């Protein structure tokens, strides 16, 4: 293994600029003659309204005040949902119009009604306060139960009963039959709490319009700049794709929240055209809380049927999923195709049936957040498995072992439409138990008891599906896009390489990982490789980064491109070395005539391609640049076991995580250090969900957790040192054998924490977040 | 932030004059509450009078058997003060647990107690240690200083100069922090002063208060056992997302016992 090649823990090249404050974030850019936008946001969760903008329009520095009426006059499209889910009744989901600026009705606090453009950010905000809003409040529905109740206030005329869809997957009859045969049935009601994403960098955008050419440019915080361009062009119709340049420079975290096409970025681009000057908007944190799409928010009833030996006969799941006030960009697929399809877990459960009602409420829209559906699925499966173990008196690890899909059963067709590619679940579980010293737990529990603490241990044997694919399948399920990825390799005449990826790095370390991949594969020094991403005029059309797809899909696209480079290089070398192409071998960056010492380095080949003085011009074009597109044959299926050990202080209800073991199968690993960092971040995210983060609204739809004073993000001292290891069953269907690691921790962690707490307090009557008060109450306080 | 006039007087007298002359003036100390409030446009004072340039307002010093903390003394400086740590370690420890390092390096004792946030830590020290608050006009007993939710005995234009803490025989502060803000959901300062026991509770009510029944029990037997079953009534205690009144009442008992145990252990 080279020092910088595949498998090496290369320090992240991007960190120098991130850690020294020299990154290039959207807010760092100031364009000449730039103006600033401030949004007028609803303080009501449900109301009709009228606006009087006269005072604001005349305020100092104001360039324009734009409203829904101006949008209508320009015939601009509304925001879209890019995935059409079909319900039990065969009808498509309800996707009511989501205006860029509300025209006459607001449906959640923070809904944007107008945008003020001014010479300075302060003047824009001052003037926004001068926009007079006359509200006629409407009754609000905040909880999903209330929204579905007979006679509930209607949020959208075209979504009767506030129902977006009623969807199902699996075999209902077979599942009913399994329950009829059951020796034991375990049941739980679970809440998967709503989360607010809180990327470190708030959303920001600068729209720019050049009247002379008709060109629009949008710089913004995006995880998928080409998707932004496509939607803004094709659906909202601000400018055609070839006249719209989208740049997502350094982006400070996304976690899904920067996938979506929102009101604000759209309005900023449109406004730039209206005022003929650049328009900039940077969210403040208070705006992020109400205007970034939230995550999770499920209420679920789950039942597991077991035979006398503890084998899983059937799983029945009924879920309400909160969509918020509007259907966000990919909201519909999260609690359906990214959730119900993962309920097989790691187990051979014989029959599965899941139904999901997606519900509109007067709250901020909900969409994908780190894991997106898969954390919710793992939470349901791993909580009910533990519940069954407890009720049947079987050790939770042993119950899992009895039901694992055996390692020789892959590819494994699930009962919920997927085919698992590879895995060895028993190996990961056993290794995790060893590392966690599971066998010695009872001694530790007794010792803790002597100190007045309740100690518990919890397992989570999670499954996830990364690199959502293939395009033909997702298309048949309602996706409006393909889910392939692009990659480009451009050799420069001097032999160094520009790598173009359609994926987007916003913290994942692609600039390092992809450079390792290219350096290793092409035999080019690591420092001679530069990764370019996040600019629609530089990179080929690409789908962006989410769902832990970048290496599995984007990396594989680069392999395609590199194979083309090598194929062309072989021809060039054959000509230069006066050998036949079939005799040219490539390895270590050198094209060699087999069995000889005649050889050309790939840098020499590149030079020859750009200075084609001795070159087969009648057979071959000059230049050495290739693009690859890769559409995966399947998802990848990372899996593993996390073990969490906690101590609960029964006097206060405080839970302390005292030990954490993560054993994950990510397939082949390019950079172990980055992978471990992703696991750390994911576990922190999942611990945040389990113990700390609980988005809350009051009955009127006012956000109670609207700042860091009340919304608790995980901090370093909430976590112990993590013990992280990997196992490896390579992905069999992509050329790198990689699976994806960005979400695993967030998927595995919540169930591990809650199972540990349940074990500690000997009660499953507790939901996330397990705050001190919640634990104290569960203990009878 | 709305516009305001900014003043940086060099003397207390000039500060008082600027405050008196302002239409709606506000003193700026460490700014840890005021600045975020201004940034969120939740307040719009006409004038800010910054005390940062007035000599003699900061620092910790001994005064007989007492510790005197200047109004502009940063929490971090109280936490690290050798005098505070040797004479009243509970006070230094309390200061060391306020907010986070950024807050402790900017926030001041004068700003904290003048703001009288019901969840702030310092009020428990002022009342629990039987301190007195010295202003540019008079001295106010700690017990009389806090008068309600964000309300104090300070008159219009009155500026805190220092706080004098008599050293107790033994004392400790136990805090149950809000997991998000790390303000006190409940904080209890217990002090054996030599002339009685004081138990001051912050975070639980609309202002800091003394727990009389606990003081009486501890007066006879300064041990956690003496208040084993003691609590405070939950009636009227604060309720929010993080803690019900009942939970707060329960935590007052737990924190009081932990403080007593810590103080007794010395």
Describe the protein in words:
- The complex is a heterodimer of chains A (781) and B (266).
- Helix content of chain A is 28%, strand content 23%.
- In chain A, the strands form 7 sheets. Chain A has a 7-stranded mixed β-sheet, sandwiched between helices.
- Chain A has 3 domains: 17-21 and 30-138 and 198-291, Aldehyde oxidase/xanthine dehydrogenase, a/b hammerhead (Aldehyde Oxidoreductase, domain 3, Alpha-Beta Complex), CATH 3.90.1170; 298-469 and 634-778, 2-Layer Sandwich (Aldehyde Oxidoreductase, domain 4); 484-630, Aldehyde Oxidoreductase, domain 4 (2-Layer Sandwich), CATH 3.30.365.10.
- Chain A has 781 residues and is of the alpha+beta class.
- By secondary structure, chain B is α+β, with helices and mostly antiparallel strands.
- Chain A binds chain B through residues 122, 125-126, 129, 286, 651-652, 692, 694, 696, 704-705, 708-713, 771-773, 776-777, 781, and chain B through 1-2, 40-41, 176, 178-181, 240-244, 246-247, 250-251, 254.
């Amino acid at each position: 293994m080279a020092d910088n090649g595949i498998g090496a823990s290369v320090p992240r090249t991007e960190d120098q600029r991130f850690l020294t404050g020299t990154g290039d974030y959207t807010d760092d850019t100031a364009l000449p003659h730039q103006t600033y936008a401030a949004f007028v946001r609803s303080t009501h969760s449900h109301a009709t309204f009228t606006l009087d903008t006269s005072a604001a329009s005349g305020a100092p520095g104001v360039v324009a005040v734009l409203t829904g009426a101006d949008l209508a006059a320009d015939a601009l499209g509304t925001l879209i949902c890019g995935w059409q889910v079909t319900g039990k009744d065969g009808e498509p989901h309800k996707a009511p119009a989501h205006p860029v600026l509300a025209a006459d009705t607001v449906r959640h606090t923070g809904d944007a009604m107008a945008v003020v453009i001014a010479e300075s950010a302060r003047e824009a905000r001052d003037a926004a306060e001068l926009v007079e809003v006359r509200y006629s409040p409407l009754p609000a529905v905040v909880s999903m139960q209330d929204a579905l109740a007979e006679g509930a206030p209607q949020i959208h005329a075209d979504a009767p009963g506030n129902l977006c869809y009623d969807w199902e997957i699996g075999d209902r009859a077979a599942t009913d039959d399994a329950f009829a045969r059951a020796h034991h049935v375990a049941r739980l009601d679970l809440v998967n709490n709503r989360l607010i994403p809180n990327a470190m960098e708030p959303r920001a955008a600068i729209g720019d319009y050049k009247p002379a050419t008709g060109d629009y440019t949008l710089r913004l915080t995006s995880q998928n700049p080409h998707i932004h361009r496509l939607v803004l062009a094709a659906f909202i119709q601000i400018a055609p794709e070839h006249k719209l340049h989208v740049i997502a420079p350094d982006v400070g975290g996304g976690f899904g929240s920067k996938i979506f096409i929102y009101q604000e970025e759209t309005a900023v681009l449109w406004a730039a055209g209206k005022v003929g000057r650049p328009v900039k908007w940077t969210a403040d944190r208070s705006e992020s809380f109400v205007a970034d799409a939230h995550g999770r928010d499920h209420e679920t009833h789950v039942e597991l049927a077991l035979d006398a030996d503890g084998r899983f006969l059937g799983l029945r799941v009924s879920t309400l999923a909160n969509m918020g006030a509007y259907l966000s960009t990919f909201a519909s697929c999260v609690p359906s195709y990214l959730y119900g399809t993962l309920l097989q877990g790691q187990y051979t459960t014989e029959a599965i049936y899941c139904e999901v009602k997606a519900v509109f409420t007067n709250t901020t829209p909900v969409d994908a957040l780190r894991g997106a559906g898969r954390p919710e699925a793992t939470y349901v499966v791993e909580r009910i498995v533990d519940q069954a173990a407890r009720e049947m008196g079987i050790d939770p690890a042993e119950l899992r072992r009895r039901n694992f899909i055996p390692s020789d059963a892959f590819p494994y067709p699930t009962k919920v439409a997927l085919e698992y590619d590879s895995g060895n679940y028993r190996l990961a579980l056993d290794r995790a138990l060893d590392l966690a010293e599971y066998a010695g737990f009872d001694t530790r529990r007794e010792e803790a008891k002597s100190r007045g603490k309740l100690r518990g241990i919890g397992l989570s044997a999670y499954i996830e599906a990364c690199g959502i694919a293939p395009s033909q399948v997702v298309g048949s399920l309602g996706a409006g896009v393909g889910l392939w990825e692009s990659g480009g390799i451009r050799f420069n005449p001097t032999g160094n390489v520009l790598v173009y990826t359609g994926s987007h790095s916003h913290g994942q370390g692609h600039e390092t990982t992809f450079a390792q991949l290219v350096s290793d594969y092409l035999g080019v020094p690591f420092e001679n490789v530069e990764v370019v991403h996040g600019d629609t005029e530089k990179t080929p059309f690409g789908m962006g980064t989410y769902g832990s797809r970048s290496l599995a899909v984007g990396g594989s696209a680069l392999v395609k491109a590199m194979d083309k480079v090598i194929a062309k290089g072989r021809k060039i070398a054959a000509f230069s070395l006066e050998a036949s192409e079939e005799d040219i071998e490539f390895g270590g960056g050198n094209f060699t005539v087999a069995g000889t010492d005649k050889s050309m380095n790939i840098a020499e080949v590149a030079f020859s391609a750009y200075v084609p003085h001795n070159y087969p011009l009648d057979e071959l074009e000059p230049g050495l640049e290739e693009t690859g597109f890769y559409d995966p044959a399947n998802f990848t299926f990372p899996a593993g076991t996390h073990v969490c050990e906690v101590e609960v202080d029964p006097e206060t209800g405080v839970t302390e995580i005292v030990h954490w073991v993560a054993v994950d199968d990510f397939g082949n690993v390019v950079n172990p250090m980055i992978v471990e960092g992703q696991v750390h971040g994911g576990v922190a995210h999942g611990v945040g969900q389990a113990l700390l983060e609980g988005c809350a609204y009051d009955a009127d739809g006012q956000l109670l957790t609207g700042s860091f004073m009340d919304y608790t993000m995980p901090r370093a001292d909430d976590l112990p040192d993590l013990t992280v290891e990997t196992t490896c069953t390579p992905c069999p269907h992509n050329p790198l054998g990689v699976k994806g690691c960005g979400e695993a921790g967030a998927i595995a962690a919540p169930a591990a924490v809650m199972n540990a707490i349940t074990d500690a307090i000997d009660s499953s009557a507790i939901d996330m977040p397990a705050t001190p008060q919640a634990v104290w109450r569960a203990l009878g306080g | 932030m709305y516009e305001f006039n900014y003043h940086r007087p060099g003397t207390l007298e000039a500060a008082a004059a600027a405050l008196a002359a302002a239409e709606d003036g506000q003193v700026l100390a460490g700014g840890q509450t005021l600045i975020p409030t201004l940034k969120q446009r939740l307040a719009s004072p006409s004038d800010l009078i910054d005390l940062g340039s007035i000599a003699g307002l900061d620092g910790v010093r001994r005064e007989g058997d007492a510790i005197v903390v200047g109004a502009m003394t940063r929490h971090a400086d109280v936490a690290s003060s050798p005098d505070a740590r040797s004479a009243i370690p509970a006070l230094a420890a309390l200061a060391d647990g306020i907010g986070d390092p950024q807050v402790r390096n900017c926030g001041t004792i004068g700003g904290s107690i003048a703001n009288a946030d019901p969840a702030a830590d310092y009020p428990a020290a002022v009342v629990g240690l039987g301190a007195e608050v010295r202003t540019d006009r008079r001295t106010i007993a700690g017990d009389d200083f806090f008068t309600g939710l964000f309300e104090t005995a300070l008159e219009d234009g009155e500026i805190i100069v220092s706080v004098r803490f008599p050293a107790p025989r033994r004392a400790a502060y136990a805090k149950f922090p809000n997991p998000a803000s790390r303000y006190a959901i409940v904080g209890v300062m217990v002090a054996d002063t030599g002339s009685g026991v004081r138990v001051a509770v912050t975070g639980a009510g609309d202002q800091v208060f003394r727990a009389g029944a606990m003081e009486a029990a501890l007066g006879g037997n300064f041990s956690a056992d003496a208040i084993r079953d003691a609590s405070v009534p939950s009636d009227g205690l604060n309720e929010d997302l993080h803690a019900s009144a009942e939970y707060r009442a329960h935590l007052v008992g737990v924190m009081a016992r932990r403080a007593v145990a810590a103080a007794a252990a010395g």
